[in-house]
Amino acid sequence: MPKLHTNQPFERLATRTHLTMTSVKNDDELEMNWAAEEVAVDSGDSGVEVADEDDDNDVAEEEKPQPSKRKAEENVVQLQAKKPKQQKSMKGLQNMKQEELFKLVNDVYMKFYGNDLTPIEIANGLTESHFTVIPQFGKHTLDSFTRFLRALCPEWKFLFKGKGIKDKCSPIILIMCSSALRAVEVGKLIRACRAIASFKCHVAKLFGKHLKLEEQVQNLKRFHPIAIGTPGRIKTLLEMKALSLECTTHVVIDMHRDSKNMSILELKDTSKDTIDCIRDAFLPQLTASKLSIALY
Question: Looking at the domain assignment, is residue 223 inside a domain?
């Protein structure tokens, strides 16, 4: 018994030591296990985060157009911008009837003065009978211009001699062009025409390019069977009484279209001057049946 008593503290101490070591071991194992669990969770979270970033990039790449596709779209836009607009198909003047030619001019006339016209002015305004049509003439081209003038005025051989009218400052045919360049072009063609040139036909140049107004006033004092010019200069000469329509039988409005596909009745610089000439100078002669308008 005393021996057992003597060894009890040692056993208790051994027991305590064993428990302590066991406790330390268990704590170490728990700590290791906890660390392992944390690593597993962290790696798992990291994997999820990477996956999310990949998904975002995939979405961004889908929404963002590829460089090659964007370049192709830009090329298409550039080609569409460079591609000229398709012009509206227009009925040729040679195929128009008298009422159609009248409407073509009268629409522009009413655009400028329709709201200011009195009932009397409307009644005495433009009518279909004021326009001349040459049936079955064919397509209007620059080369056929002189042929058109001869068909328009069958008595030109007699009238171009100027008997009894050489001091009237009035041409037989007055041609209105949209630009000085076009007037020069048509004038050269007329002077080159053998039939007209044989009558020593003088053509009055009534436009502002390199020609002074004073010189034109002096030139008009000599008989010119044909006068050709721009609406602005013709309007000025008519207002100055330097140009007369007393002997004029036809006014030809050249409907040639420029590089922008605009005619004399559509261009801002010429449309109003043309209508002003019709309203202030041509209309009285038209009403008296001394004058006719032709569109070429």
Answer: yes
The secondary structure element, H or E, covering residue 295 is strand 292-295
Identify residue 22 by its one-letter amino acid code.
Answer: T
The sign of the dihedral angle between the CA atoms of 192, 233, 151, 162 is negative
Cα within 13 Å of Cα(84), Cβ side: 6
With respect to residue 201, please indicate whether it lies within any of the assigned structural domains.
Answer: yes
Q: How far apart are CA 84 and CA 141, in angstroms?
A: 24
Asked which of 57, 82, 107 is the last residue of a domain, the reply is: 82
Q: What is the DSSP letter of 131?
A: B
67 shares its domain with 97: no
Assigned token pair, 15 = 């027991």
Q: Residue 284 corresponds to which amino acid?
A: P
**264, 218: one domain:** yes
Print the domain residue range for 73.
2-82
Tens digit of each residue's pLDDT (9 = 90 or more) over 150-197: 999 999 889 988 888 888 899 999 999 999 999 999 999 988 888 777
Tokens 């006068």 sit on residue: 227
The rounded distance, in Å, linking the Cα atoms of 66 and 260 is: 39
34 located within any domain? yes
Identify the domain boundary among 82, 117, 135: 82
Cα Rg, the chain, nearest whole Å:
48
206 Cα distance to chain centroid = 29
Q: Centre a 10 Å sphere on the Cβ of residue 86 and count the other Cβ atoms it contains.
A: 6
